[in-house]
Amino acid sequence: MRSATSETTLERADGSVRTYITQKFPIFDPVRGEQIICAISTYITEQKRVEEALAESEQRSHAFFENSPSMMNMKDTDHAITFANAHYLEFYGMADDDTISARPVNYIDPETLAKFETIDREVVVKDIVRQFEAQMRSGDGEVHDFVVTKFPVHDADGESIGIGGINTDVTELRKSESELRRAKDEAETAARMFELAAKKAQISDLAKSEFLASMSHELRTPLSGIIGMANLLLDTDGSLDEEQQHKIGTIHSSGQALLTILNDVLDISKIEDGELQIENRDCSVAALMNAVENLWKPQAVAKGLNWKCRVKTPIAPVILSDDARIRQIIFNLVSNAIKFTATGARRRTRGKPV
Question: What local confidence, expressed as pLDDT, does residue 320 receive?
Fold first, then answer.
């Protein structure tokens, strides 16, 4: 009979459970003159608990390593791979047997490998943690950006036995950062272009104001001369017949109307700035319509159009309004009517144009 070893669990009277390892072996009993079995049981409950805790811890660590999105590996002090998780193997397209106890010379380019091993030596010698960025080419040839963390691995006595590595893929993050920088640059360029356009617009407005100021002098001077000469002719006693006085009066009122329009054009900057003021003063509707007829009737007749100008009665002889603005509105309407009426006339019958 040979010796045998077994593990036994016994329940005590108080309900607690203890674990023993029992070794049984045969011995000769000279009293009986025969072989008997001798058993030695060793109490291993605490040792068993420690082993189970270690096994559980190892299982947890293994689960974290294998399911981590980062590439994890361990090397010994000779830079040979002793451990690599699933993501590491997947990235390089390799099986576990291809990596364990091998330097990664066949799947990492020499320049990158030399850099890594230099840092590995520094980590071991100085007993420090290093973090840096690096580019690595996958098994299918695609280049990825990584944040690499290197750290020393110690044994139970605190001696360095290797180097741990965690490689976190930040390729998409770097692409997003690059796109954000590009978008920021484009936005800044657009802002500069907008600022430049605003400056050009400001320069254009200044040039327009300067032009209007210049035209104010250039146009007002001859127009004032026309109006002044018309006034002199109207003041001539007895030398003009009624028709001549009527025509000169038309020239005078038309000149005044043109001067008002010119003032409105030159006041465009006030309109843009919201500073144009509407005036309230006495206005004769009959005189206003008479000025309209004197100015526009000759043009309508010359075009072969029918012309009638009537003031609906009864109406107050004088109203409180801004006659210059009303005159400008009516002049614009009549000008467009003459311009866009080819023949005949535009009239209204029962409220509908025909």
Answer: 85
Confidence tier at 255 by pLDDT (50, 70, 90): confident
Using a pLDDT cut of 90, give the percent of the chain over it: 23
pTM of the model as a whole: 0.48
Q: How many domains does the chain have?
A: 3
Cβ neighbours of residue 141 closer than 8 Å, sequence gap 6 or more: none
Please check whether residues 27 and 85 belong to one and the same domain.
Answer: no
Choose the final residue of a domain: 169, 186, 212: 169
Question: What one-letter code names the amino acid at 279?
Answer: E
Integer Cα distance of 162 and 152 in angstroms:
6
243 shares its domain with 304: yes
- Amino acid (one-letter) located at 23: Q
Q: Where are the alpha helices (DSSP H) in the chain?
A: 45-67, 86-92, 96-99, 110-126, 171-234, 242-266, 268-272, 285-302, 323-340
Give the pLDDT of residue 269: 58
CA-based nearest residue to 257, from 174, 164, 324: 324
CB 305 within 8 A of CB 343: yes
DSSP 146-185: EEEEEEEEE-TTS-EEEEEEEEEE-HHHHHHHHHHHHHHH
Q: How confident is the model at residue 349 (pLDDT cuts 50, 70, 90)?
A: very low
- Same domain for 38 and 72: no
Sequence-ordered list of residues with C-beta below 8 angstroms from that of 77, at least 6 positions apart, any chain: 124, 160, 161, 162, 163
What mean pLDDT comes out for the span 254-262? 75
| Domain containing residue 286 | 222-353
Report the C-alpha gap between 267 and 258 in whole angstroms: 14
Q: Do 32 and 86 belong to one domain?
A: no
Rounded to 10 deg, the angle between the 285-302 and 242-266 helix axes is 100
341 and 227, same domain (yes or no): yes
CB 289 within 8 A of CB 312: no
pLDDT digits (tens, 9 = 90+) for 1-35: 577 888 888 887 888 888 888 888 888 888 888 88
Give the CATH number of the domain where residue 125 resides. Answer: 3.30.450.20
